[in-house]
Model the fold of this input.
Amino acid sequence: MNLNGNEIYTLYPGTKPLLLSLPHVGTQIPPALLPRLTPRAAEVEDTDWHLEAVYVFAREMGASVIVPRHSRYLIDLNRPPENAPMYPGANNTELCPTRYFTGEPLYRAGQAPNDAEVAQRLARYWRPYHDALAAELARLKATHGHALLWDGHSIRSELPWLFDGQLPALNLGTANGCSCAPTLRSALMQVLAAQTAYSHVTDGRFKGGYITRHHGQPEQGVHAVQMEMCWHTYMPEEGPWQLDTQRVQRLQPLLRQLLQTMLRWSPHG
Done:
């Protein structure tokens, strides 16, 4: 496979109609920005840790993979460009986040980005990622007749500022069934229902962010889903954020089965 990379993202083009997007795995923060952030920001605690390693088998399956380099603290690639809240009525982090997932301020007093700076980050970091993602989906659709998008995420299982209680281990999001064909949604739900190792829900608290909702256009031949996994499925939920090999080995067969289900699915039944 050829590698397409730059300072914003790395794209590994695949041979199958599936694209794996991991928009929150980046950890880089421009050095000039760090003094405006609280010291805690340097730990980038709200990263979707280690998902490239967890999904390492995806490229072996022939899937395309796209990953960013920069932290979501710089800009959130899974938020809409107009910065509308993804979940009205609940606490949300913004296009350029100003709070940690625990609710405390991310920036020192008076240092949060203004509208002009947000627009600059949008043009420099957000747009190239989405342009590349859209172009790869278009390539896959032109090659295979349809394209599949798996948007991979992970999060701490308890974050009272964002949601009540404890999340199920696996959270499948399809924008309430709007981002993919009903038969694909059903096939993935059947895989989750057939196992007992992990709690799961479909279109619960996390229904899919901007990437799933925007790029998932089943009537146009592009079918997208989001998977939000709790950290504890593959690592401890406290620093230093290191992979647990045994947990990874337990989780990967189910993730592989889900991606295989995506690839076996056909829009023609």
Q: What stands out?
A: The chain has a mean pLDDT of 95.
